[in-house]
Amino acid sequence: MAKKYLTAGLTKLVTARPIIIITTLHQTGIVNAGTFGAYTNLSPTEIGIAIGRPSHTYQNIKRTGELVINVVTRSLAKAAEICGEEIPPSESELEKAGLSVEPASLVKVPLIRECVANIECRWEKEMVIGYHSLVVARCLAGWIEKDFLSENGNLDVVKAGAIFNIGYPRPLYAVLANPFLVE
């Protein structure tokens, strides 16, 4: 499948809040991957993500200022669970999950090839909230599988089979079906 390169309207790729894997880089160059479901669009160019400050993902974002948001589909649910495990920084979650990377266009952090959409981001600011920080990421560029781009520029989460965690902290996921308009 071919992806379309985007530079505008990037938060439209995650409007329905599917599960995401965030990739970052360790100091050693190993790609870190963490699974997240607590995030929101803050503006047309910003996404806020709740990230535990002790995590490798948070530490890497603070050190490099870069991250990539990768949208997960049903076929990648097991991989998302592996990426959510506590794995030492000397090992790659992506390798354990059987996922592959490809270069991003504007950041050094690679994106996950198998994911249906990817958003290249830079750290902008944060707000400390207990154990977590609400990390504000500025969206710079994105990629989406052309077959899953809706008429209005969003990721069609139904067609793509994007997964949503409905049983956190249990790994209970769902996909959306039978969308409808309220008239």
Set down the secondary structure blueprint.
Layout: E1 3-6, E2 20-25, E3 31-36, E4 39-43, E5 46-52, H1 56-64, E6 66-71, H2 77-83, H3 93-97, E7 101-102, E8 111-112, E9 117-129, E10 132-145, H4 157-160, E11 163-165, E12 173-175
Antiparallel strand pairs: 1-10, 2-3, 2-6, 4-5, 5-10, 6-9, 7-8, 9-10, 11-12
Describe the structure.
The chain is mainly β. It has one domain (3-175): Pnp Oxidase, Chain A, CATH 2.30.110.10. Helix content is 14%, strand content 39%. The chain has 4 helices and 12 strands; from the N terminus they run βββββαβααββββαββ. The strands form 3 sheets. Strands 1, 2, 3, 4, 5, 6, 9 and 10 form an 8-stranded antiparallel beta sheet that branches. A two-stranded antiparallel sheet has the order 7-8. Strands 11-12 form a two-stranded antiparallel ribbon. The N and C termini lie far apart (35 Å). The model has no long low-confidence stretch (mean pLDDT 93).
Summary?
The chain has 183 residues and is mainly β.
Number of domain modules = 1
Question: Which CATH class applies here?
Answer: Mainly Beta
Percentage of residues in helical conformation: 10-25%
Q: Structural class of the secondary elements?
A: mainly beta
Estimate the mean pLDDT confidence: 93
| Shape descriptor | globular
Query: How would you spell out the order of helices and strands?
Result: EEEEEHEHHEEEEHEE
Give the CATH superfamily. Answer: Electron Transport, Fmn-binding Protein, Chain A
Q: Work out the number of β strands.
A: 12
The name of the CATH topology is Pnp Oxidase, Chain A
Strand content: 35-45%
- Measured on Cα atoms, how large is the radius of gyration? 15 Å
Low-confidence stretches: none
Given the structure, what is the number of helices? 4
The major β-sheet equals:
8 strands, antiparallel
N→C terminal distance: 35 Å
Query: Which architecture per CATH?
Result: Roll
